[in-house]
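A brief tutorial aside. Many learners find it easier to grasp structure tokens once they have seen a single protein encoded end to end. The record that follows does exactly this for Amidase domain-containing protein. Read the sequence first, then the structure, and try to relate runs of similar tokens to stretches of the chain.
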Amino acid sequence: MTATWQETAAAYQAALKAKIPPEWLLPQDFLSGGKPRNIMPLFKTCGVLTSHELDITEVEDAVTLLEKLHSRTWSAVEVTVAFCKRAAVAQQLINCLMDIDFSGAIQRAKELDEHLATKGELVGPLHGMPVSLKDLTHVKGMKYTLGMVALADEVSGHDAVVVQTLRAAGAVIYCKTTMPQTGMALETTTNLYGRTLNPFNTDLVSGGSSGGEGALNGCLGAPIGVATDIGGSIRAPASFNGLYGIRPTSRRFSYLGNAPFTGQTAILSSIGPVGRSLRDIEMMLRVWNNHEPWLYDPVVMTKKWATDVPVPAKATIGVMFWDEVVMPHPPVQRALKMAVDKLNQAGHEVIEFKPYKHKDAWDLAFKQYYPTGGKEIKATLARAGEEPIPSVAKFLARARQLTVEELLQCATEQRQYQIEYLNHWRATSSQTSTGKPIDALLTPSMASASFPHDYLPWWGYLAQWNLLDYPSVILPVSHVQLSDVKDTTYQPVNELDQETYDLYDPALFEGAPISLQLVGRSLCEEELLAVAMAVDRAIKA
């Protein structure tokens, strides 16, 4: 007799829990008084991690962690065990993992320690560092499901190019993280493994589709993670969980070996890291590039990583306060205005950037996300008899299969829009003191700091840059405060704007991280990161 999707999901969740060592399980009475909205303090009080393991997992960033590992201050085993334990606790609190290989990771760490002890050399630049990866990234011997019940038993038979790179560099792979059903949602929830929560405010989402990466890294359960992005899936989770992250140009690094949800090629998915600092982000991209991914993936551009790009003392930065579609919530506006003030104080040049047809861009992107009307998605859901989650259901209801002629028209419109936007960007040269276009563009990452469960938000601040294929970086700036009161004088300009306006309540969003997005030009990741470092320093000053 064929199992129901509910039975399959229950078995999946039970098997996942069984992979957590019994001594790492939280006491049954630990949350007897209920789970707080902010679960971050619970890692210190749960009794699973020692004080030394807390020190390891709460290290400043991955670069600092690698310094400790490579100097033999900390062994690969003690670091791996610490992060395995913190990830196990995180899973029990916010449900961010979809597969676990703690025992394999500890064995790998032992081998790395032995190699360093006997040969006196590192396996590679990431020697001993645990790394988390998203559900859809193929890791040999581990599961991949795309958040769909019909794929619950799928096990990868090979490593993605990025995983090959990580292993060659000496990294330790210990877990895979959750993603939403199908991957096309900014909230991570599925019928298969449930809902992932935001560690800073469990009433809010952790983002999607790399929501497990965002939540795990946000609660310091990983030193760095690998995510993917076709419409905001690196940037929303980074933004909602107070992380740094980058969505690189799609052809800069290898996506090969990450399971796609569709075969469309108009808007390619990107792979990128989320982490605790910009130097972590730069370090990871440099390691990936040094592996020469163009030798393994024909889509990747042959372009060596530039290590000589200076952090500018005076950058020229455009600022887009809103996209003229959906007005950001008060705390996002506060963060953006604060950043502009700090940049001016630091001596950078800031000019206002007027948005260019952003609603048209979203409409064009959406059509190309679902060129078959979601036929393959619907068929995969039907195989297990499961229903789409609310946000996916709303998208599928809007999706329409395109004819060949319509696909060609979309391609023509996309190319024309890319030309027009480039000209719009270049035209900023008439506003700058240098007579050159802006170095980067500072924008909201989303209209809100996060959003409540089962809500479908406006994606335009994110998907815009996928359509254009511009790299973009997420910078943590602040947190929502009760003093970020609603603007009762604002008059929304359309239905989407009204929905977003009605959603805001400072009490609901209190404590949620607020982040901003810095956008650069295609294939200019090094230059974008250099400007991002200048912006980050100014904000923190």
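Self-check: Residues 404-426 form the longest helix (23 residues). If you spotted this yourself, you are ready for the next section.
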